[in-house]
Specification:
2 copies of one chain form a homodimer.
Chain A (H helix, E strand, L loop, with lengths): L6 E10 L9 H6 L3 E5 L6 E6 L5 E6 L4 E9 L4 H18 L4 E7 L24 E9 L4 E7 L3 E6 L2 E5 L3 H7 L11 E6 L4 H7 L5 E5 L3 H10 L1 H4 L7 E2 L2 E4 L3 H11 L3 E7 L12 H16 L1 E13 L3 H11 L6 E9 L6 E9 L1
Parallel strand pairs in A: 11-12, 11-15, 12-14, 15-16
Antiparallel strand pairs in A: 1-5, 1-6, 2-3, 3-4, 4-5, 7-8, 8-9, 9-10, 13-14, 16-18, 17-18
Helix pairs in contact in A: 7-8
Chain lengths: 360, 360
């Protein structure tokens, strides 16, 4: 794969009051010696395409309601300033032709496809977001998930699990929120962390000198990747699976929780840092919600009566998914109350809901 | 303009090891009764376009280095689930044809153009960002700038000046940062705010019972819009241009600063909330930098020897622009020192640099 052969898109759209003069724009493409094709649209406005040199391709549409869209596809090694000039010329000509009767002009940043490093990681609420990612630091497939650590200029390294941005080195705000936003005292306490393979929570809780932290993370590959590449998050805490006041069990948390229930173990704090609440709001995905409820149910059983259970929820915009999650809380074998907090986690580029749950 | 006639784009790209079987994909478009045009590309891969019903248009490119891109244009009132099915069918067929020899498949969220409400506001460092904006609350043109207040589901109302996201109701972090991040005591102090028309800084400083705040904002239209629509930010502070310990001068700050210099006025805190450091890193835009330096120079002259001057800088990623700004600080008539802090302002979707400046 030739890394030079990437693809760019420049997108331009205009809102005009009159579309009649637009064919005059064609002369600009003709000057560029582009080959024109006019397409029959069956009454859906004017549509022409132009093929030029070096793989350039332009789609010009004049929609019946006054919207003009111009898309330009080109390769990364193309002459970008020449192309900017072409777009500028189009903009100038349109303005002149339409005598200022343009409501709005919008030129979007180029959308790059086929690049070695993928910069587009949509938010949980489905918005198109371009990250400032400039490198893939680590990539492995485990039996459970695809694990990537990507480098962002502003956020540092970012852990991406199955395409979801999990945590960046900039995201102490996430760790603080899922620990109760500085309002808890972990000194001398029994703490259980479910998941948390990036080591962020473990590293922060350890500082408060708890009696014992047990962290149950299913994937050694996540731990290994983060140990090497997320050190601003985990420090040296993942270098050993055991320390003065912590132990990391590389296991599925469900059988561990079941064993603890049987043994009558109790924890003062349980921090669930497993995968997010399902994004889907379709409850026919029964198994996901059932899995979530199973974890919750088992956890609440090993939670001290005055203990607290912390977990991340979802994007604040996904109100349906949040409501469904809260409905699950009403279905636990032991009745619970909860509160929630909206937190800005820098690398998420969307506000995130965190839950605190306790026994009634 | 018909609000139903909006435009969507669905973007799909594949990385494949072999492109030979791709023409087999064509049958899917033929089944959809789309009219095909194959374009001559002079050795730049395979390029076909398809015009379908309801204004649908597909661009299929098979690039010589194994990248396949499929772009689908359609109108918002089109049958979106039918189109999703088409894209799913293409994905399935490609996977089958290529026997799993696909390195990566990426389907991006639709890019919407021509909508009444524009959701795309690129970051200062030029990245494509889709906001969750669902309404235009306020729009006016002043002699100085275009003023918009847009509603975001998660951030509340957002003030956008000349297309730049200025401040959202979620952005107390901005106000706290430009006030010195909670490390200053404004009680009994003389405070000067340059700009700040959204009232956020004024509302926060007033709480600390300073001796007097003078705010100099050039645009009454900004004040008026924010007074109505940014009340989570400004509270009722903008309802009156004068209060117990503050006054708002609706004036250009340069003559005001010059007058203060002449009068020998001194301020304990000066907060510059004027427009951002120019994004451009081309110092040939002399006038912008000179304007910036003029403001700085005048401000430092009215700054108490033990006083502090706070200002926002720029995106942390725009290191060249930041360096140029810091060079200006070395050129002031009075020598100064400075420190900087990187802050996450929720609605910016990029980390932002704030400066503290003081007399040496």
């Amino acid at each position: 794969m030739d890394s030079k052969c990437l693809m760019l898109r420049l997108l331009l759209s205009f809102y005009i009051d009159s579309a009649s003069t637009v064919p005059d724009l064609l002369s600009i493409f003709h000057e560029q010696e582009m080959t024109e094709t006019v397409h029959e649209t069956n009454g859906h406005g004017y549509l022409a395409t132009f093929v030029g040199k070096n793989g350039r391709f332009v789609i010009l549409r004049v929609h019946s309601h006054g919207l003009v869209t111009i898309d330009l596809q080109c390769y990364e090694e193309d002459n970008i300033s020449q192309l900017d000039n072409l777009l500028n010329a189009l903009e100038t000509k349109l303005k002149a032709l339409l005598n200022g009767n343009i409501t709005r002009i919008k030129r979007l940043p180029a959308l790059i496809r086929g690049a070695k490093v993928d910069r587009y990681w949509p938010t949980a609420d489905g918005r198109l977001i371009e990250y400032d990612i400039d490198g893939v630091v680590y990539e492995e497939d485990s039996a459970y998930q695809n694990i990537k650590i990507l480098h962002s200029q502003q956020f540092g390294n970012i852990l991406v699990l199955n395409g979801d941005v999990n945590l960046a080195e900039s995201d102490l705000a996430y760790t603080q929120a899922i620990m109760g936003s500085g309002k808890e005292d972990y000194a001398g306490k029994e703490v259980l962390i479910l998941g948390g393979g990036d080591g962020g929570i473990l590293a922060e809780v350890v500082k408060q000198k708890p009696k014992m932290i047990t962290m149950v993370e299913i994937s050694f590959i996540v731990i290994d990747g983060c140990k090497m590449h997320m050190r601003k998050t985990c420090g040296d805490i993942l270098d050993n699976l055991k320390g003065d006041c912590y132990q990391i069990l590389v296991e599925d948390c469900v059988p561990v929780l079941k064993k603890y229930v049987k043994e009558g173990r109790m924890f003062d704090y349980i921090i669930n840092d497993l995968t997010a609440v399902p994004i889907s709001t379709e409850p026919e995905e029964d198994s996901t919600w059932e899995f979530l409820r199973l974890i919750l149910d088992l956890s609440i059983k090993v939670l001290h009566p005055s203990g607290k259970y912390f977990t991340q929820g979802n994007s604040v915009n996904l109100s349906e998914a949040l409501t469904l999650y809260e409905e699950q809380l009403g279905k636990l074998s032991c009745p619970v109350d909860f509160s929630k907090e909206v937190v800005c986690v820098p690398s998420y580029l969307e506000l995130w809901v965190f839950y605190t749950i306790w026994k009634k």
